[in-house]
Amino acid sequence: MNEITSSHEIHVNQIRQWRNAFLGQIPSIFANENKKADQNEGGYKNQIENLYAEVGRLTTQLS
């Protein structure tokens, strides 16, 4: 941390506050990412189902 504080001219206490704030929020950060991934997965599954249904309709129209 001393290297960071000297190179960027930031007080050590400020770096510690930022680090502690980040470490305290890590679980919520990853929880939000997991929610987004689950939402995307659900959307993709929905889209795949719709595409298979469309392929089925088009196949029966050609027959």
Structure, described:
By secondary structure, this protein is an all-alpha fold. It has a domain at 22-63. It has 2 helices and no strands. It has helices at 2-8, 12-62. The protein is rod-shaped. The N and C termini lie far apart (71 Å). The mean pLDDT is 85.
Fold blueprint:
Blueprint: H1 2-8, H2 12-62
Largest sheet: none
Task: Please tally the β strands and state the result.
Answer: 0
N-to-C series of helices and strands: HH
Helix amount, in percent?
over 70%
- What is the number of helices? 2
Mean pLDDT: 85
Features:
mainly alpha; 63 residues
Please outline what is shown here.
Helices cover 92% and strands 0% of the residues. It is mainly α and 63 residues long.
